[in-house]
Amino acid sequence: MIRKMLRLLSLLTSIAIMLSFIAGCKGDTDSEESEYVYVSEFFSVPGTFEYVTGICSTDDKIFFASRITLNEKDGTYTAKIFSVSVDGTALIELEDYVPAYDVPGAKGGVHIQSIRVDSNGNIFIEEHGHFYEPGATDVNETVLAYSVLRKLTDTGIEIDTILDLTEFQSSFSHLKLFGIDIDGNIYLHFSNMTHSNTSVIVFNNEGSEIFRLRALSNNSSLIRLSDGSIFLADSDSNSGFTLSKINPATQALDDGYEIEFSGFFSQIYPADGDFDVLLRDHRDLYVFSMETGETVKLFDRVEADVIFDNVFYIKMLKDGRILFVERAANRAIFGRNRLSLVILEKKHISEVSQERTVLKLASLGGVYSHYLFNAVMQFNRMNQEYYIEIDLYDDLMQLTTAITAGQVPDLLDVSGLPFRQYATSGLFKDLYDFIDSDPALDRSDFFESVLRAVEVDNGLYQLFPAFNIDTIVGNSLFLDDNMGWNISEFKAVIENNPETARYSFSKADFVQSAVILSIDDYIDRVNGSVHFNTDEFIQLLEFANTLTPNTMLRYFDQIDMLTTGELIIANVNLGQFTQIQIYHTILDSNVVFKGFPTESRNGNLLSLNVGVAITTKCVSDEGAWEYVRMLLDKDWQMENYSWGFPLNKEAFNMILSFENSLGRKIHAGIELQNLTQEDIDRFYALIDSLTSTVNIDTELLDIILEGVNDYFNGRTTAPDTARIIQSRASIYLSEQN
Question: pLDDT for 315-359, tens place per residue?
Fold first, then answer.
């Protein structure tokens, strides 16, 4: 067994893991850097909270606000403020806090948008209230609406209401952020103050306006640095931004620091020590020094056991440790947030010890791969015996070359890969064996039709937490009530309903779906042959070329037109229970999931965003299965996967029951109706109908689409297109084999 030493630090109930130190401090040599690591400590804040909103911290305490529902039926709510130590202990509610206003008997309530703490430990909150009549159907029938900036003690007692924010806010402008400098001056950062850009208004500590500034763009942010000064980060491009001090003495911006930053920075935070600010984009964390003008990448999401998708707040503490606050939700418990704290600390390698077996997860880093990466972070925190490292590859060729050279990972993210080819080559282990030998699991715990749809030669070689369904939904008053249709029946509906049987998928999309649904008729990976130069494929091309799709139709357009009867069919990707409620509501339960036309009349297509396989070279089946098994857990699926239907039937039913039990629910301007048992049965029948999945690698798909688009654009004939695709696909498949 291959083993890798990982030196770990265990502190009481927290789990600590080692992270290779990527960015050294100024003056460090390479040899010095290699002697240090980042050690992560993890703490869970006890309990769950409803809609955690504003958050800030001192060096030893975190303050945050949460919305509290008082009466779900009446639609009344209030706000509470909490504090917790940075180690997750000493959670308390600031019981002396009372909202500025209350309207007994009215609907609505109060929420806190932002929190800040000044140099004296006083708490400033941005508080909003919106109350309306109990019988009102329109929330604009307001009894009282207010927005104020209040100053509180550290127990929540009001010291003063500093500002009435209402006069600065309208339908065109709103308060984005506010800050308090070391002298108590207040900085309000507004969006769209003049309908086109952002303004900063500065007040003294008594609430009197001092001066105003104008930012370059809406892509700007306020930040208080460790010395108590307030800076404006402003950008009018995607190549970087300017960081400028707001100077109360000159009532202007000081000369700024130009920071080159590829991509879009999503958050900026104060740093300490050798650096001035922390910068975060969608996946990486950087630091910037004003003294040197240097921007350094600390680590990315696959190098730190931090779940970047859940990160709500970051702070570099005075001692150089970095605090992350993660906020996670649960799809089956509406508006419940769970908070976790992660602290990274730089330590000398001699200070840490212990070892775990290392497993490798290889990935191309697809759009949805972050779900698997998040699961890795959670696994590494909880598991004391195994540790998973993520290896990212730039493209399929690089990954294939590595595998061919014998660098086979233990686990493989199969998103965008030629999965069937890999499976038939013997690269993966059959996961049915793992399910069947697990005493706590049974195949019936999951949707078996979905599992069968991804089988290869009766084996299960990938697993996944959730699935989507690509289909054509229709109004059964104009179609028949039966699921499925063939191409002739599809053509007849279009010809008989030329005004309402419109669709948004392109000609190429139509061919793509037809190929995917009949992939085994076109691709024989076992024998290394392809079958595109056939009369059937030529006829498919010729029929697709007669279609006149409206590719300008978008999701909400289709919803509106199905509601009014202007459409009787729509192609959709189903991944949310709300979507099922929408179609049953707007079509008055006259819903039929026809699927894409195919001669088998079974055109509902399973769509997977992610999947993971265990390779035959895995150094520890037990460790790899523990990771995959976590993805199948009902609680993990409810808390961590936001788009898709859970594969675990218990999680599926819990979320469905929850979604179907909510009160008044508005989506796209439509008041949704709860599903009847007949509606639910129809939904289950849709899932049971799944027999095919999008199971074609992207490079082969590109060959097909390039050929068919040449035909649709008049550059080739259908027979020539079939011959060209046949030739190119044959060469590609031969190279891959």
Answer: 988 888 899 999 887 655 656 788 999 998 888 877 876 688 999
> CA 6, CA 387: separation in Å to the nearest integer?
9
Query: Which residues lie closer than 8 Å to 88 by C-beta, 6 or more apart?
Result: 43, 44, 45, 46, 341
User: Among candidates 187, 140, 182, 143, which has minimal Cα distance to 162?
Assistant: 187
Write out the H or E segment, with its range, that includes residue 33.
helix 30-33
In angstroms, the Cα distances linking 570 to 486, 549, 565, 668, 687 are 17, 11, 12, 16, 18
How many other C-beta atoms can be found within 10 angstroms of the C-beta atom of residue 559?
Answer: 22
Type of residue found at 98: V
The model's pLDDT over 360-375, given as tens digits with 9 standing for 90+, comes to: 999 998 888 989 999 9
**Domain 472-593+665-736's class?**
alpha beta
Distances (CA, A) of 659 to 85, 114, 559: 35, 29, 20
Residue 644 three-state SS: coil
What is the rounded distance in angstroms from the CA atom of residue 399 to the CA atom of residue 397?
A: 5
Task: Phi first, then psi: give them for residue 319, nearest 5 degrees.
Answer: -85, 5
Domain 358-466+609-649 - what CATH class? alpha beta
Answer yes or no: pTM beyond 0.85: no
- Please enumerate in sequence order all residues whose Cβ is within 8 A of that of 659, keeping only pairs 6 or more positions apart, or say none: 577, 578, 581
Residue 60: exposure state from Cβ atoms within 10 A (0-12, 13-18, ≥19): exposed
CA-nearest of 312, 322, 219 to 271 is 322
Stated as kind and residue range, the H or E segment containing 376 is helix 370-382
* Residue 396 to residues 364, 392, 405, Cα–Cα distance (Å): 7, 11, 14
Give the pLDDT score at 305: 78
Dist CA 378 CA 42 (whole Å): 10
Structure tokens given for 480 = 């028949």
Domains 358-466+609-649 and 472-593+665-736 share a fold: yes
CA distance 246 to 233: 10
Model pLDDT, residue 452: 95
Report the pLDDT averaged over residues 145-172: 87
Give tens-digit pLDDT for 645-694: 999 999 999 999 988 887 667 776 788 888 999 999 999 999 999 988 87
251 or 640, which is more confident? 251
Domain spans of the chain, in order of start = 358-466+609-649, 472-593+665-736
Q: Identify any residues that bridge with 246 across adjacent strands, giving them in sequence order.
A: 253
74: which residues sit within 8 A by CB, 6+ positions away? 107, 134
Phi, psi of 711 (to 5 degrees): -65, -45
Q: Which of 199, 193, 291 is nearest to 253 (CA)?
A: 199
The torsion region of residue 145 among left (phi > 0), alpha (psi -120 to 50) and beta comes to beta
Q: At what angle do helices 621-632 and 370-382 cross, to 10 degrees?
A: 120
Residue 577 to residue 656: CA distance in whole angstroms? 7
- pLDDT band for position 7 (50/70/90)? very low
